[in-house]
Amino acid sequence: MADRRPRLSLIVPAYNEQESAGEIVGFYREIARAHASLEVELVLVDDGSDDGTAEAVRAHLTDQDPAVVVSLSRNFGSHAAITAGLSACTGDAALTLSADRQEPLSAVADFVAEWQDGADVVWGLRSVRATRKGASETFATTFSRVFNKASTVPTYPQEGPSQILVTRQVIDVLEAMPENNRNVLAMVAWSGFEQRRIFFEQLPRPHGVSKWTSSKKIKLVVDSFVEFSSAPVRWVTLAGVGLGALGALLLLAALVLALVPGTSGTVALVCGLVLLVGGLNLFALGVVGEYVWRAGDDARRRPVYIARGTWRTGSSAAPSPYETDV
């Protein structure tokens, strides 16, 4: 009996990407042709789209294509969608790809080469970004660098990872992690294992616009720090110590001004101090509240996502032995 070919699962989270359905399936077939020694599986996760994304992708697939289409009950976010894809996939390794077809075929070859050379985790870092400029680029790089220094995951790439390949062993570890408000990339970095990096030049998006909004970016930043760092609490503590020292100096200055005839501004000085202290207290309460809320959210043990349905074809038609119900 011939040995089973290693299987690579391509995880593609998609939200309102109906117009990209042809490119998604076309790129999947390009990868399958370029890596004939592998059995390549497409895992498309429709993250609550309302434009028929799942149906459009299914229309481009045939009975011979090893593929899985998971439809979530609503929009849970890209990291929840990636989690759903990892749960549904049957591969010996899984590679995340964007729905807007911005990774070159050569980058996939680099991912596969590192995996076959023994890597458990392969980070995909963009050497040139086709679309992210200005404030968006500064935001991403600043977050990655600060998070790398201030968190418990020093292996998180400072350049800001875009895509990632993980082996089945790493997937099993991720499946066992219960976080509801998650950054899958940070979870992978935390897990350890043999981690390597590749660099690729991002291709321009063929059409449409990115669904990665500012509010989603901010939520990811907060989730990442709360789950993997105590630095925000420490920063607030240090700010409180510094403000206490400043307050003592200002109070002393106010007393001196009150005793010196002909001086004014004491009331304004004290009012400013009170407002400053009050503002810091509210900020500190908000930081602690983020930690408490997420701890409560995890304690409720709600599912990370809810799958409305799962469709399989080709050699992926049998349910994955790794798949969960939620």
UniProtKB/TrEMBL annotation:
Residues 9-129 form the Glycosyltransferase 2-like domain. The keyword Glycosyltransferase applies. GO terms for molecular function: glycosyltransferase activity. One of its GO terms (biological process) is lipopolysaccharide biosynthetic process. One of its GO terms (cellular component) is plasma membrane. The chain crosses the membrane at residues 235-260, 266-293. InterPro entries: Glyco_trans_2-like, Glycosyltransferase_2, Nucleotide-diphossugar_trans. The keyword Lyase does not apply. Keywords: Cell membrane, Glycosyltransferase, Lipopolysaccharide biosynthesis, Membrane, Transferase, Transmembrane, Transmembrane helix. Belongs to the glycosyltransferase 2 family. This is Glycosyltransferase family 2 protein. It comes from Cellulosimicrobium protaetiae.
